[in-house]
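Incident review: delayed structure delivery

Summary: a single-chain prediction request sat in the queue longer than the usual turnaround. Root cause was a stuck worker, restarted by the on-call engineer. No data loss occurred. The affected request and its eventual output are reproduced below so the record is complete for anyone auditing the incident later.

Affected input:
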Amino acid sequence: MILVDRYVGPAFFIGSARVSTTLVVAFWVVFYVWFGSELWIGYRRRPPASSAKQDSGSRIAVIGSVWASVTAAIALSFAFPDAAIKSGRTALFIFGLALMLAGMAFRWYSIRVLGASFTVDVATRPGQEVMQAGPYRWVRHPSYTGALLTLVGILLGCLNLASLAAIVVAAAGYAYRISVEERALATDLGPPYRDYMRRTKRLIPFLL
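Output delivered after worker restart:
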């Protein structure tokens, strides 16, 4: 891996005197596990033909916003080298990796709990009930919480304060997705889901 000025650009691309090659390799292993798992989810969790699809383009919006965030974070790290984080880089990089792993694990767990009701397109199936087990007891969209945690971990890998601003792009995509999904669920599942909405938060218990 070629070394340049240690504070220019994302650490996971150019290496750093303060971030070891082992950690950089670990980042890419986790990154590609994440990428592969999302491809697998997209393939395995398509809604059945009997489902009422009401996606309104929200799946494309989420996918596009996530990759736009990653691309923007990398671009910002090169555009604003003075915003590079200059102390505690290794610790922050490790924290980013931990967030990636935690976010992936939480997303997979949430998908497993929701079972057949989880689909990559917004859709409801006949006889679907409101899920309130596991993480759904506290938040309505825990799989999105996990996805956003993973993305924050990726952005931290840039070790640049400007790069963190790129999270707003993905946040906008998920905000649109959540609005589409909740409108569909409130309509199709009726009062039980609307009551559930009043008792819970979208992404973070008691906060958001």
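Verification: The chain has eight helices and two strands.
Action items: add queue-age alerting; document worker restart procedure.
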